[in-house]
Amino acid sequence: MTNMGLLFQEWQDSVNSEAKNSSQQELILTAAVQYSPDVESASFLVDSIRSYLNWVHVMAYDYYMPEWSEITGAHAALYDPSSQFNTDYGIGAWIGRGLSASQLVLGLPFYGYAWTLKNPNYSAIGTPATGPAITDDGSMNYKDIKGYIQRYGATVMYNATYVVQYCIVGSTWIGFDDVEVVKIKVSFVKEMKLLGYFVWQVPYDDNWELSRAGMRCCTHFIYLILPDLHNTSGTLIQLPAF
């Protein structure tokens, strides 16, 4: 992680030099980071992030994935009373390590995951599962999840403990964020006084349904579309207007 801190410093020095020796404005420096500052073998250098980056995108999702998790899980849980794998804990850890809330941009997933239940008679969050369902890795975008629910007439259930929606069709269990969950998470962004939020990713939405839900919660925000290196669709970021 020491080398990462040096890299951030070199980037900032280059940005300052370019702006000083040209008519261009200073570039914005950001990084995508995991939900918590601590990783398995090291920790992010919060001092370097605070000093050299404008903000960080906190990837607050993929806490559980059917390819490796043997139980169904809320992959983007806002809260979890029995585990540290949740957004509230992660954001608190970043702030607790000294990073300002105003440098944190929260990631919202516009996709969910499908598991195959080991026993369809047991379907709560944390139920034993045998692996992915529907797709190779179990991932499904929000639009496809809605279509699946409509096709099979599935009943959607909300879990307020984790702040997640899920549905069951036979032995298939799907967890995802919907309009109400997005609203709650954007309210969390405001309550924590974070810089804003981003989504992964815009094309996964269904006719802008989730995007509009978030935007309606923020009447004094500006909206940026940042290009996605993997495709041309971009990622929506909302930042408070100054």
From TrEMBL:
The coiled-coil segments of this chain are none
Source organism superkingdom: Eukaryota
GO terms (molecular function) for this protein are: chitin binding
Provide the GH18 domain boundaries: 1-221
Q: What biological process terms from GO does the record include? A: carbohydrate metabolic process
Question: InterPro entries per the record?
Answer: Chitinase_II/V-like_cat, Chitinase_insertion_sf, GH, Glyco_hydro18_cat, Glycosyl_Hydrlase_18
Q: What is this protein called?
A: GH18 domain-containing protein
Q: Which organism is it from?
A: Juglans regia
